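QA checklist item 7 of 12: single-chain prediction sanity check.
[x] sequence parsed
[x] length recorded as 130
[x] structure emitted
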Amino acid sequence: MLKHRGFPSRLPGTDYQFTIRRANKQGATKIIRRERYKDRNAADRRADAGFLAALWDHFGEEPFERGNLDAGRLSWLIGREVVWAEEPADPCSYDQLLRVDRARAEAAFPEVFAEPETFQWDDLDDEDWD
């Protein structure tokens, strides 16, 4: 499992996890498309925006390997702002390539692109998980 060095491990000041420490012995957790209903609380929406901002800051529009990115957090964005970069997709693979669909991401989370300084990752501890 690829570990994305420099990628924030969580949303600052919260317990919303962005990465995992180690691979699951039974295999990668399946990425499923989760429905985002309009009545989701503000903290959940902020976590989605923060994760998307981290993805955009770290990878831009380039394809990236799933690696140690949290399946639960990816599941809130998959099929919309984050898409499979190769077919056939394997939602249970740490090696699966994904990419950010900028047009859809900007439409859903304009604040991530209009105010990128809102999410400052430089001051976070970059813990080296082995």
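[x] summary fact logged: The beta strands are 64-65, 82-84, 97-100.
[ ] second reviewer sign-off
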